[in-house]
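Schema walk-through. Below, the input block comes first and the output block second. Nothing else is stored per chain. Lengths vary across the set, and this one has 113 residues.
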Amino acid sequence: MQGLKSGDYCVTVLIQDEEMIVSNLGNCKAFLCTREGVAKVLTSDHKAETIENQGGYVAKTRKLELEEDMEFLVLTFNGLWDVVSNQEAADTMLNVLAQEKTPKTFNTVSTAS
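--- output ---
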């Protein structure tokens, strides 16, 4: 494999019945955020040198039981993780979701004369 370079990555999640199967290949990540707001990483990153040292095969798969405290999943590639921590990403998503759940209110202006 001399002289060959690649940069592909893939992260997938299959949710079926009461289970979640998470798999990743390359430098990408999946994490879930609990209802308490804690980010829990589900995958491990694969840097180029790690992939080469393991002969080019490093796909990882993990099976989890779904739990009541699982709020949401985030699937992304390394570009985000170069500038944002897991917890920062979870906090940002929680803030967006909180704004969406907040009832919209409108200011009314009385024009009574």
